[in-house]
Amino acid sequence: MKIITGGVTAAEGFEAAGVEAGIKYKDRKDMALIYSKKPCVLAGTFTSNVVKAAPVIWDKNVVEGAPFGQAVVINAGIANACTGQEGYGYCERTAARGAKALGVPKEAVLVASTGVIGMQLPIEKIEAGIDKLAQAKADTIAAGTMAAEAIMTTDTRSKQAAVEIDIKGKKVTLGGMCKGSGMIHPNMCTMLAFVTTDAVISKELLTKAVKEDVQDTFNMVSVDGDTSTNDTLLVMANGMAENPEIEEGTPEFALFKEALHYVNESLAKMMAGDGEGATALFETKVVGAATKEDARRLSKSVICSSLTKAAIYGHDANWGRILCALGYSGASFDPEKIELYFESRSGRILIYKDGVAADYSEEEASRILSDPEVRVLVDMKMGTETATAWGCDLTYDYVKINADYRS
Amino acid sequence: MKIITGGVTAAEGFEAAGVEAGIKYKDRKDMALIYSKKPCVLAGTFTSNVVKAAPVIWDKNVVEGAPFGQAVVINAGIANACTGQEGYGYCERTAARGAKALGVPKEAVLVASTGVIGMQLPIEKIEAGIDKLAQAKADTIAAGTMAAEAIMTTDTRSKQAAVEIDIKGKKVTLGGMCKGSGMIHPNMCTMLAFVTTDAVISKELLTKAVKEDVQDTFNMVSVDGDTSTNDTLLVMANGMAENPEIEEGTPEFALFKEALHYVNESLAKMMAGDGEGATALFETKVVGAATKEDARRLSKSVICSSLTKAAIYGHDANWGRILCALGYSGASFDPEKIELYFESRSGRILIYKDGVAADYSEEEASRILSDPEVRVLVDMKMGTETATAWGCDLTYDYVKINADYRS
Hints:
Two copies of one chain form a homodimer. By secondary structure, chain A is an alpha+beta fold. Chain A has helices spanning 54-65, 84-102, 123-136, 141-150, 203-216, 251-273, 292-304, 306-313, 319-327, 362-368, 396-403, and strands at 2-4, 14-19, 31-46, 69-78, 109-116, 159-167, 170-179, 192-197, 232-237, 281-289, 339-344, 347-353, 356-357, 373-379, 385-392. Chain A is globular, with a radius of gyration of 21 Å. The termini of chain A are far apart. The model of chain A has no long low-confidence stretch (mean pLDDT 90).
């Protein structure tokens, strides 16, 4: 597996674009397009929120019902959620205009929106934007970056990852982009993520790979515990690598899953590290758990704890808050037995063991916590299961951004 | 039912004190005592966190095993949680010293701690503090207030409530105090709450009343979603009102429960409104829910949403975040049918109906949200169940307090 530069245009046959459509922001790109020269098999996972945005409903229908997909039209600024029949109608108009501009069936056009809930889309601006996108699309790395920039809301940087693998002598590429950075608690989050690949793989097998991997990647991220109405992960495979079809239970499928995991995990970590107002990526790795479910609950509970997140911001080794978060996670364990470490590129330190604080230096702990990527490592001493969850610190800027997001 | 001034000393035969013991803070009271002239029947509810502080374990043993209780010794500054056998030993020494100073059995002395997790108590200071408390105790309102002040940590004001009822010609009084204000998500939170009454009531019936009422009061409060290791509610009844014993299924029991509910709800709301860094009490009332459990989940999900809490701080009618929080609560409903209002002493406004934003004035909504007590009212249109949950806004000061709590 080889890590390469790029995003959604890394794989063969994919084009992208990002343009200014003037939907809500001024002087910035706010619409993106992903387009495949050939029809793609699709896999997708969507928000578990009862309140689902119109584009989520549209895309679910496409992913589950249409034979293939070929394009995704994305806008930032307005989420098209809680917008009733009018909002759903705009999805249809978006897809219809995309279909016309790109020469593909309407049912092959997916849509995604992120931004403020409850406002209607300015559909004429969207339609004009689609025409611009169709003109601008290109298969370059730069075009992929334009798209990744266009889907940002409160993100401070665009997020892309790509990787190459070899499937029986054929180069297969996977690339993706995503955006955060508030209302992020995917189960699925307004996380939007898009992964493209030129692999030849069936829809069933692609779906299986995506559903499994999302449990350990996007669903292990939380910025603020709010599961958005718009969360969407779409994976498109256009088969242009011309590899022999990837079959279940083969080394090739294992390699494909590894590549998908790399792209998903990279994007998930970028999203967490760029959480609203964040100064640090805050990772919690649980090892020695009795069950996988326990490991996931425990690690996620820690990265979701507001008190712990604020302590990370303060570079304060306030490990009691971590013990507390483990304790209310819903998993059972013996607090006297577990071990807890802090680690970062600046070192590693044992903090808690045998039911009491270890004899550590607060100064050293604080130095370790001053890194932009910090990790809590917890050994539950109960079994062999592990899980990792990613979040970020809680800062003044999180409050600032969200006390005044709409204006 | 008559609302009166006072707290834990309002009921007949209860004394209290608050003194400076120099445990962690300088120049402030940090130890409190509640003492009853006569033995009390006890009821208690404690944290559901797997990591339970030593005093929680001690008190559970007393409440469940001892025939009666007569005193509570409380300290602020150090939580005596995650302190191993040494920490539990300090509970025993605290109770023993209290027993000696007050002339009661050791098994009748309850203990409670709040503050930093993981540090050991300075037991000599605690013991000296107990002697001072025993000297200072008094049955005055002022003494109750001293106690309520002594148990504060990041609270900005002390919290007391009291009420009188008439049980067959006898005046029965209930009074209580509590403290917040971080790590508050009782299920049971470090919430500590103490209610005293001079009612004659059996332990069984008192326990039943407390367990039921806590579901609708303390367990409906959240400041930050972190369920503490120390949460404790203790209710003590010493029988000194000499009323005919309160029996189940009688109007007198209904009246007693109403009085208990008033005290508990008052304290719970004070705790929420004084959440760390809060500028407003944020209440969410759900009506028309299909089940009581749904009503509780829905209302609690809204007051726990970081994004909604930040919007409340910004006086921003960002109702999409409320819809979103309802949607991920776990309760199912039809987003097209529900109705949503904002209200406060400044008025009431319909915000959302029929699946889309109502035609409201942002200016008026913002004015309503500028009150120090704001309420979201949601009608689910599915049934007749209701629930109310209390939280607070999310502010810069919450981050400030918690990024630097220990230093």
